[in-house]
Amino acid sequence: MNAKWLLTVFFCTSLTGSVLAADDIIEAVLLDKAALSGLGLEPVTASWAPPDRELFSKVLYSGEQFDVTVMAGDTARTRFENYEFDEFVYVINGQATLTDESGFAQTFQTGDFFMVPKGFAGEWHSQGNRYYQELIVIMKERSDTTNSSHQRPFLIDKAKISGLGIAPTQWAADPDREVYREVLYDGSELDVAIVSGATATTTFTSPMSEEFVYVVNGTATITPDGGEPQTFYTGDFFVVPEGFIGTWTTTGNHLYRELIAIPGN
């Protein structure tokens, strides 16, 4: 397993980020549920869209390493010659059909998670009940290279998200603990993994890297040093900012499970 996966909540052992001052408290951030429901988005324009297209967005999180945004727009077809970044997408409403230059088309619908790889060329056709809406995660810094193994948009495996067929692994800090993990997408700028494990509390004494989390099953209670506990439940989206120090307690119906996106190599 690539060393970058030591950054996940179950396996974080490396030192990343700068050392925090003693009075700094870095808390996890629950993503705005009203905005995820389509409320409070602001009209925007984009260089890749015609000026008369209806587009709305709201930045839910802007961190040291990545941004998380909700975007909505009317039905449209948009052509991309060379997609500039890895983009992690969750479809909130409607569907997106992406067709590459060879004519290969894939359709992603409400509830799907998918990746648009850096370098993608083709058409993006978004459709919705008036508006297509999505949650997106994009790194702030661009990679100099593209991952040749990812030429097409990629659906994140629904069976793995459901907890089926995830590879068992051993956690060095607690070899007897039941733990599963699998990398689902290894991109140029962003990586996505499914991680699952029995109830446990993990203490982070070294600053963590930034991490986007979707709780698939169970609860995660995150308590920063010097701060108050925050509990996130099934269906919640949250971000752990870069530099977090504290404890992370997971519980679930036998197994807690999360889908995560973290910075790639």
Outline the low-pLDDT stretches: 1-22
Helix proportion: under 10%
Shape: globular
Find the structural class using helix and strand composition. mainly beta
| SSE series | EHEEEEEEEEEEEHEEEEEEEEEE
Mean pLDDT: 89
Distance between the termini: 13 Å
Strand order of the largest sheet: 1-20-17-22-15-14-13
The total count of strands amounts to 22
Structure in a nutshell:
By secondary structure, the protein is mainly β. Helices cover 3% and strands 46% of the residues.
Draw up the topology in text.
Elements: E1 29-30, H1 33-36, E2 42-43, E3 55-62, E4 66-73, E5 76-80, E6 87-93, E7 95-100, E8 105-109, E9 113-116, E10 122-127, E11 132-139, E12 154-155, H2 158-161, E13 168-169, E14 179-186, E15 190-197, E16 200-204, E17 211-217, E18 219-224, E19 230-233, E20 237-240, E21 246-251, E22 256-263
Give a structural overview:
With 265 residues, the chain is mainly beta. The protein has 2 helices and 22 strands. The strands form 4 sheets. The chain has a 7-stranded antiparallel β-sheet with strand order 1-20-17-22-15-14-13, with no helix packed on it. It has a 7-stranded antiparallel β-sheet with strand order 2-3-4-11-6-9-12, with no helix packed on it. The chain has a 4-stranded antiparallel β-sheet with strand order 5-10-7-8, with no helix packed on it. The two termini are 13 Å apart.
Task: Spell out the key features of this protein.
265 residues; 2 helices; disordered N terminus; 46% strand
